[in-house]
Amino acid sequence: MSASRLPLFPLPLVLFPGVPLPLHVFEPRYRQMLADCLAADRRFGIVFRPEEIEERDLPPGHVGCVARIDKSEVLLDGRSNIVVIGVERFALTRIVDSTHPYHVGEVQHYEDTAEPSEALEPTAERVRALFARVGRAARTLADDSDPLPELPRDTGLLSFAVASLIDLDAPARQRLLVSRSALGRLREIDALLRPAVEPIELRALVHVRAKQNGHGPHPQAS
């Protein structure tokens, strides 16, 4: 995707590669964009736009993610519910003049720098283990027996998948999207998850014991 053009959907949120995202499309200009994309390659670009920045003021180099429309449901009043999948990152070169009612950007491909697998793999496995522990405890607290989401084997996508499932604000998500180091992203996720593990596991243990309400096994008197 070198020096190509892409319809843009500026939003106050971040889409990660490999991650699904439901969207509600209601503005007329984006209804038109949706129709155009469905008639073409089903792709557009989602770019994080902070509230204080106007859409046309998004700076060169701003990083977004290509969204591929996976599902689309048109409602009776013309609005649509869609689900998109993050495909790959791009860097905005400029917003171009266009006859379309929505913005069109000239974009460049944006990818990670190469890093040795011997550094990536141990950190990736640690992140997987931490996420599993936090996720199981959170499921216990919510009385939710559903299995945890399956994480990608690809170390470059792992940090994006985990980041999409934990509580991060949009600027923090954007920082991860911009990072070109998979190892750096994994280390950041590791630093976020590690201090959360023991407190949430303790809360989950207390929750289980409270639900037993004294009906669990009692130690025998000696």
Oligomer: single chain
Radius of gyration: 21 Å
Q: Strand order, biggest sheet?
A: 1-3-4-5-6
Order of helices and strands: EEHEEEEHHHH
β-strand percent reads 15-25%
Shape: globular
Number of helices: 5
CATH class of the largest domain: Mainly Beta
- Strand runs, count: 6
CATH architecture of the largest domain: Roll
Class from secondary-structure proportions: alpha+beta
- Name given to the CATH homologous superfamily of the largest domain: LON domain-like
Parts with pLDDT < 50 across at least 5 consecutive residues: 218-222
Kindly report how far apart the N and C termini lie: 74 Å
Tell me about this structure.
The chain is 40% helix and 25% strand. The chain has a five-stranded mixed β-barrel with strand order 1-3-4-5-6. The longest helix has 31 residues, at 182-212. The protein is built from five helices and six strands, in the order E-E-H-E-E-E-E-H-H-H-H. A hairpin with a 5-residue loop joins strand 4 (63-74) and strand 5. The radius of gyration is 21 Å and the shape is globular. The protein has two domains: 4-109, Roll (Archaeosine Trna-guanine Transglycosylase, Chain: A, domain 4), CATH 2.30.130.40; 117-212, no CATH class. It has 222 residues and is of the alpha+beta class. Helix 2 packs parallel to helix 3 (155-165), helix 2 runs parallel beside helix 5 (182-212) and helix 3 crosses helix 5 (182-212).
Task: Fill in the keyword field for this structure.
222 residues, alpha+beta, Archaeosine Trna-guanine Transglycosylase, Chain: A, domain 4, 2 domains, 5-stranded mixed β-barrel, 5 helices, 6 strands, globular, disordered C terminus
